[in-house]
Structures are given as C-alpha cells and as structure tokens.
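re: that complex we talked abt at group meeting.

here r the seqs, copy pasted straight from the sheet so there may be weird spacing, ignore it
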Amino acid sequence: AQSVTQLGSHVSVSEGALVLLRCNYSSSVPPYLFWYVQYPNQGLQLLLKYTSAATLVKGINGFEAEFKKSETSFHLTKPSAHMSDAAEYFCAVSPQGGGYQKVTFGTGTKLQVIP
Amino acid sequence: DGGITQSPKYLFRKEGQNVTLSCEQNLNHDAMYWYRQDPGQGLRLIYYSQIVNDFQKGDIAEGYSVSREKKESFPLTVTSAQKNPTAFYLCASRKDITNSPLHFGNGTRLTVT
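got the structure back, here u go
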C-alpha cells in the first residue's frame, strides 16, 4: 500500500528565505508524485507533478521539487519566500499502472511567512 | 472555462438528517473523487468513480453514499449513520490517466449540530 509522510505540520520562514517542505513516500515501485497548495476555504491547486520524465520538476509560483529514489523523497523548495506563499501544502502519491487508482495525500504542512 | 462546481459552499444540518452535496464538472473527465478534510488529517478518500454507474469505496466510506448517473455529476450523500459529519468536503476529477493530476472544486463546509 502506498503512503505519504510530510514532516512538520507547521513551517515558518522569513520573507525572502528558502522554503523547504518535506515529503517522503512509501511504495513498492516509484509512483507518480504531486504537490498541491490550498488557501483557506478553497480547493487544492496543483503546484507540480513528477511522472518519471525528469527528477527535477519545476512548478508554478517559483516552486520546484526533486525526486530522489534512493531517499524515497520528493521535497518542495522555493529559493525566496513571498508573503503570498503562506498556505497549506499537500504532497500526494498515485501508483503507476492501469485500472482504478487511488490518490493518497499527506497530512499537509502549513507554511507561515514572516515579514 | 472548464472546472468543478461544488454547491453549496456552506451547509448546516441538524443531527439525524441526510444531506446531499453537489459536484458537477465540465472538464470531460472520466474519474471523480470525494475527499473529506479535517484539521491535521489531510485529505481522506470517501468514494471514487472511474465510469458512469460504477464507483468504489475509499478509506472512510461508512456513513456516506454516492451515485454516478452522468459523467458530469457525482453527488455525495452524508447519511445520519455518519458519526462525525462536520467537515470540509472536496470533490475532484481527473482524466483516466494515472499520471494526470486531480482538479478540485472549492469545497463544501458541512456543519451538523
């Protein structure tokens, strides 16, 4: 069974500082991986996705993530935090293969950006 | 623009009443999903459907029911059997391709008192 672990339910960074949000997955084969962002009382919006084409994935709003098979990780980074980045971020995993496919989410990390 | 519409945004019900949450998509996506979101627990899958007239239980299906009579629509009924129905409910859809991302509606916040 697949699972996702996000380390740190709350992360605080200063405006302009590096953002690092951690995600580790558990799966028998490398899955497809996604990062989503959620603003209060809204749905989730896709930031980026890994589908085995390239290990370094660039997304919207200056975010990127690197797939590391040896570490089973898919951490999200942004070089310089902006106030508008304050939101909750979710890592998700979907197994490769056909048929019905469940998408499993981590418990989320709330990012606070301090001016 | 294509998207997913969930209605209503806020819903209030008395305990013991069934309530149906609406989800409509015009993205021509085959697969649709219902998630429940509670603080600190992430998103938990209630039901999902890949084609019309077929759906599968997710991880927390007890106390919920769904139907998929049309490709565009996937309503969720929260029954009186659901012990803790107060939550934020999210509907999503995606193409029938496993590497495609989910597209989400803006959610329905259900409060049961």
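couple things i noticed - The two ends of chain A are 41 Å apart (CA to CA). Chain A has a mean pLDDT of 91.
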